[in-house]
Design goal:
Blueprint: H1 22-33, E1 40-46, E2 61-71, E3 74-79, H2 85-119
Helix pairs in contact: 1-2
């Protein structure tokens, strides 16, 4: 399991959301909210400390952590048990997709606000 730390496998580009209706995006936000997990998956190799273990000869154990901002300028990391890795990874991907969709909706709202204000003569 030699993988570099990855933020998410979800593309952060908003281009694919251009032709999707607001209603569909809002429904997707509700669906994603049920499974999202805040943080980043970090995959590392670790040593257990047992002198007779294979890791003492350099063959380290794979370890997965969920790392997130903990406030006050600090981050926190939590070991992810192997049976939960896939579910946590999906939750992190859902969080990043949720953010991308929320950004797309906010951009649309801003554009609509300016368009309405221009039509009313409030701005040029």
């Amino acid at each position: 399991m030699r993988r570099s730390p990855v933020r998410s496998s979800v593309s952060m580009s908003l281009d694919h959301l251009v032709n999707v209706s607001d209603a569909m995006l809002r429904r997707e936000l509700v669906r994603l909210a049920r499974q999202m997990v805040f943080g980043t998956i970090a995959e590392r190799a670790r040593v257990c400390g047992k002198p007779t273990c294979r890791c003492a000869q350099g063959e380290k154990h794979p370890a997965v952590q969920l790392v997130h901002w903990a406030g006050a300028g600090k981050t926190a990391g939590h070991h992810v048990p192997q049976p939960l890795v896939a579910t946590v990874r999906e939750g992190v991907d859902a969080w990043h997709r949720f953010q991308a969709i929320a950004r797309a909706l906010a951009d649309r709202n801003r554009a609509q606000l300016w368009t309405r204000a221009q039509r009313r003569g409030q701005i040029r």
